[in-house]
Amino acid sequence: MGNGLKKFTRSQLVIPLFSLLLLVVFNLIRDVEFFSVSIVTNNQGNRVLSGNLISILNGASAVAIISIGMTLITSSCKGQDISVAAVAAIAGSVFVSVLRSNEITVPVIILAFLFSCLVTVLFSTFNGILVAIFKIQPMIATLILFSAGRSIAYWINGGATPTVSSPLLSSIGGFIPGIPIPSPIIIMVMFLILISLVLRFTNLGLYTQVVGINEETAHLNGINPILIKLIAFMISGICVATAGCITVCRIGLINHETLLLDAEMDVILTVAIGGTALSGGKFNLYGSVIGAYIIQALTVTLYAMKVPSAAVKAYKAIVIIVIVMISSPVVKEFAINLYKKLFKKQVGTNIPMKAS
Fold first, then answer.
1. Which end of the chain is more exposed for a tag (fewer CB within 10 A), N or C?
2. Domain with 104 in it: what CATH number?
3. In 39-105, which ranges are continuous DSSP H helix?
């Protein structure tokens, strides 16, 4: 039993699952109806699912998708990309620019998305070159686009905040007629399955972890660390483009100043909460995705408790600090040792004494 507990506590999913469980229990005690789901009719006349649970799943979709790419970068490069939100604004601007130049049809939407992916992959590759070839620390290397990215997005549309309106875009950012589940949730699940299959049926996941653990050893074993890091940034570029386009479809416009504002901080926190070592190495995509839902669930909980919007970030910071501290190796080891002492003491008191 002790070995089973030790193995469980060392799992990368134990902290995000435990944190999510605490939020669920807290909200059930606070308001038993918090997670209730109902069917309502939206403005388009479609019957759709509604409730806090749906809001959490839907609201976290963009951050969850970006966290997939951030996880690979963190694992392979031993650092974080702080430009993801700014590059998402670039993707959204490119997406809108292509849509406004043509009649909005399914082929045009696909073309706009592919073009935005191409642009963000190029920008992400630029970050990757600075990190992989020039050996610049990821947070410093990505500071360039963190500062300039939204200005580039501003330039793409000539400083305007153009709107795009189409039932097709509403379906992508909202609900597909006849399907009560928000489209961003479906897209996130499909994206996660796709990346999981790529990592499962290729050596990319293994190589990413090996490069993050020891780059020199990886090179001696025939793995190209530069290529692995560049691939991680390229995948992140696709993730960022997907999140940016979903957000544009959801709100129906591109505002380079506010699109996914401060999302990079939430993404880094989801990766940390999800169990990926911020110093590189072993990672868990599912843990990062769960971390995104934890952040969103915490946000929705605070708003449900009537916490002022200006104070939400402070409350989130306190809770996240506690979660990160609990997930630290020192606290985990202390919990294991404490359990061993209590368990052995209990066993010792139950040993029957021999008759003299």
1. C
2. 1.10.3470
3. 52-59, 61-77, 84-100
